[in-house]
Amino acid sequence: MDILLTPINFRLTPAKSYSNANSQNNFYKMNFKNTNLAPLAQDCVSFGSRKKSKVVEEAEEDFSKAKTLDASDKSDKISYQVGKDINSECQEDLKKFKADLKRGLKSVIESDSNPDLPVLRGELGIHGRVKKPASILQKVSPRKLNQKKEIFKMGDVVGIRIVLKSSSQNDFDKVFKELGKMVVSGKLRVLEVENYRMTPRDSYVSKRTLDNFELACHKANLYPEISSKTRESGYTAVHMTVELPSGKYAEIQMMGRDMERVKEIEDFFYKKRCTKAVDDKYKPIEALLNRVMGKTKVDKATGKVSYEKLDDFQVATLDRYIRDSYAHARQIPPKHPKRAALGKDYFLPIPYSLPKELDFANIQKLKDTCEYMGSRKQA
User: Fold this and answer.
1) What is the distance of C-alpha 34 from the center of its chain?
2) What is the sign, positive or negative, of the torsion defined by CA atoms of 99, 105, 106, 111?
3) What is the mean pLDDT of the chain?
4) Sheet with 189-197: strands ordered across
5) Coil, strand or helix: which one is 226?
6) Which are the contacts of 7, defined by CB distance < 8 A and separation ≥ 6?
7) Which of 116, 77, 32, 19 is nearest to 323 (CA)?
8) What Rg value do the Cα atoms of the chain yield, rounded?
């Protein structure tokens, strides 16, 4: 049966420059440079390169030479063993942080008796991770951080994601109200809030909600930096930097399930662009991207990223496809009847000019297979 949808006017070809900045469809006519997909100035060290891989392998092989840093110790470089130590030390912080959030947000997490509450139940709704040793090394190296206390305050060594099944501002307002109560009671110390959105209209959180949350912080003698930013990639979420009881910093990400599904796929393209290694269980996806796109090449003079097997038009089209996929996720909310009819795995179809293997739906299927095989190995 054919399902008719209201036209969304996605642009699946490279954007041109437009002078009419006040157009009603301005977001889709912007000439993006897609900074979310570009290599970050301080976070682009490649462990995929032979030289960096050799450093990590040597560190793994010879733990006796690895130096474990105390709070006051310094070293010219952080060893892989230190990365392991930091990962281990943060595991208990993650466990306590998740438990605190689940208790504090209990009134907005769905359950059998209250299935309409906004936050997904169980691990789908509140889940987290501690950065792996290789990722820690990858991030601290360009920042030249050589003390544990500095690394613990990077902000995202410990990370929690709160996922809502709806994308409505009303549901996010409910969650922010509970987070505000946690702040006032001293159970959450917020240092920074970043509201990422495509346009003010598409923001998960309204300005009024952010203002009320800021007042709650002031009651607790906290004065976080609160900002609303436009991510040119179309990524929409709310990020918070918080201080844990141990003094370590952590990050909270809040987004709808629609946005999370797109972000999980886009992350593979981001890591390909920045030549970052993926988690071992997702190596088949990394292999697919390498086979279809070829090697990543970065022009040292301009910073322009290209791929061995894609021409410039295809690279620009891929960037646009990713941006439009984010926008498309917000066009049909998870609770909308059209979303149910399309199915949970529905993604924006890939433009004909790109290899069909790069279609988000195709990568999602491969991702599901990787996770299934990974769960079987653990069992």
Assistant:
1) 15
2) negative
3) 79
4) 126-130, 158-164, 249-256, 237-243, 189-197, 225-230
5) strand
6) none
7) 32
8) 22
What does the pLDDT average to over 34-52? Answer: 35
**Which residue's structure tokens are 């549901």?**
171
Asked if 230 contacts 199 with a C-beta cutoff of 8 angstroms, the reply is yes
Determine which helix (DSSP H) or strand (DSSP E) holds 329, and give its type and residue range: helix 312-331
Alpha-carbon distance of 335 to 316, in angstroms, equals 32
C-alpha count within 13 angstroms, C-beta hemisphere, residue 353: 16
Paired tokens of 187 = 């159970």
User: Are residues 37 and 274 in contact, defined by beta-carbon separation less than 8 angstroms?
Assistant: no
**pLDDT tens digits, residue range 256-287?**
888 898 999 999 999 999 888 888 899 999 99
In the numeric block, which tokens belong to residue 313?
A: 């038009």
Q: pLDDT at position 338, please?
A: 67
Please tell me the distance from the alpha carbon of residue 260 to that of residue 237, in angstroms, as a whole number.
9
pLDDT value for 133: 87
pLDDT tens digits for 276-317?
888 889 999 999 999 999 999 999 888 899 999 999 999 999
> Is residue 249 classed as helix, strand or coil in its secondary structure?
strand
Helix (H) or strand (E) holding 227: strand 225-230
Place of tokens 């290694």: 277
**Cα–Cα dist 379/374, whole Å:** 9
Distances (CA, A) of 9 to 13, 52, 153, 328, 348: 12, 44, 43, 10, 12
The letter for the amino acid at 203 is S
Per-residue pLDDT, 6? 41
The residue type of 25 is: N
Give me the pLDDT at residue 48, please. Answer: 34
Distance CA 228, CA 239 (A): 10
CA distances for 339 relative to 76, 234, 258, 327, 329, angstroms:
53, 20, 10, 14, 10
CA dist 64 and 124 (Å) reads 40
Q: What are phi and psi of 179, to 5 degrees?
A: -65, -40
Cβ neighbours, 10 Å, residue 40: 12
Residue found by looking up tokens 């886009």 in the block:
266
pLDDT digits (tens, 9 = 90+) for 147-191: 788 888 888 899 999 999 877 888 999 999 999 999 999 999 999
Q: Give the span between the Cα atoms of 183 and 252, in whole angstroms.
A: 14
Residue that is written with structure tokens 């789908």 in the block: 124
